[in-house]
Automatic annotation (TrEMBL):
GO cellular component: dynein complex
Name this protein carries in UniProt: DYH5 protein
GO BP field: microtubule-based movement
Limits of the Dynein heavy chain C-terminal domain: 234-329
Domain spans labelled Dynein heavy chain AAA lid: 88-227
Gene Ontology molecular function terms on file: dynein intermediate chain binding; dynein light intermediate chain binding; minus-end-directed microtubule motor activity
Lineage: Eukaryota, Metazoa, Chordata, Craniata, Vertebrata
Organism, scientific name: Pomatostomus ruficeps
Length: 330
């Protein structure tokens, strides 16, 4: 009656077939037993196992507002007050904004990142822990070591996932422009109307985040406005492709015909155009009149035999296909 957890199953697809056979052939099984599988999207994942499972996906929300709201919904008041340094709360919000930005750029495809990186909550948690430790160790006279902060965020915490040189330069540009003493001034903003709020409670930050636009311009992420056109086009194409791929077999296509009706119609047309089988007796009689032992006639007889084999195979395949559509194929 326990639970079985199998992680990263996209790395062991061969075992999943064995797992499916074990589950389906098991004579008795506890009603409390569950198999929990974690995997990345993979085209060779066993479709029968996927269809028989309850699917659960955990994806980052769309938009800066939704991303920051999700991040600060997990921030507790104790975390907000864990450090007495005045730089702590603005730095926490800046890291949250950076975390949302690197995730949002993925939706723009190659315009956002040359390589799609799987930034996740662990990157944010590790970055926040580093900022906290750094502020605890920093001397009041010397202040924050911004070179260290930029390096750790751009090269280690988030940069550790980045493999492309241009992507690494982009990430370091974010850290260089956003993280510094200038971020504590009242004039600082990530983009127009996207500033670092001042508050003492988590509720203060959530109230500010609620005022942010639901739909963000690509300029917030440092992209040209045309990047949104490319994103919307790709999203529409992907949506329609998904709809077509999951379309039921009996759904209508062009002209009100189902896919089965189209296939059957084409099969009937091909069967009508297919020539009848060659009569071996007639072929033999004709060749004898022309001289059966002549090399050209021997070659002709071989070609007729091969053509007869092709015609028979095509006729059998089309006939079986029609029977299969009608559910009469034995």
């Amino acid at each position: 009656g326990g639970w079985l957890l199998l992680q990263n199953c996209h790395l062991g697809l061969g075992f999943l077939n064995e797992l499916m056979d074990t589950i389906t052939t098991k004579e008795s099984m506890s009603e409390d037993f569950r198999t929990w599988i974690t995997t990345e999207v993979h085209p060779e994942f066993p479709i029968n196992l996927l269809q028989s499972s309850i699917k659960f996906t955990n994806e980052p929300p769309q938009g800066v507002k939704a991303g920051l709201k999700r991040t600060y919904s997990a921030v507790t008041q104790d975390l907000l007050e864990v450090s007495k340094m005045p730089q702590w709360k603005p730095l926490l919000y800046a890291v949250a904004f950076l975390h949302t930005t690197v995730q949002e750029r993925r939706k723009f495809g190659p315009l956002g990142w040359n390589i799609p990186y799987e930034f996740n909550q662990a990157d944010f948690t590790a970055s926040v822990q580093f900022i906290q430790n750094h502020l605890n160790d920093v001397a009041v006279k010397h202040g924050v070591n911004w070179s260290c902060v930029r390096y750790m965020l751009g090269e280690v915490q988030y940069g550790g996932r980045v493999t492309d040189d241009l992507d690494k330069a982009l990430l370091n540009t974010y850290t260089r422009v956003w993280f510094g003493e200038h971020m504590f001034s009242e004039k600082f903003c990530f983009y127009k109307d996207y500033v670092i709020p001042r508050g003492n409670t988590v509720e203060d930050y959530l109230q500010y985040i609620e005022q942010l636009p639901v739909i963000d311009t690509p300029k917030v992420f440092g992209l040209h406005p045309n990047a949104d056109i490319t994103y919307q086009t790709n999203l529409a194409d992907e949506t329609f492709s998904t709809i077509v791929s999951i379309q039921p077999k009996d759904s209508s296509t062009r002209g009100g015909e189902t896919r089965e009706a189209v296939v059957q119609r084409l099969a009937d047309e091909m069967l009508e155009k297919l020539p009848p089988d060659y009569n071996p007796h007639e072929v033999k009689a004709q060749l004898q009149k022309m001289g059966a032992i002549q090399p050209i006639n021997i070659f002709l007889r071989q070609e007729i035999d091969r053509m007869q084999h092709v015609i028979s195979r095509v006729r059998t395949t089309l006939t079986d296909l029609k029977l299969a559509i009608d559910g009469k194929l034995l």
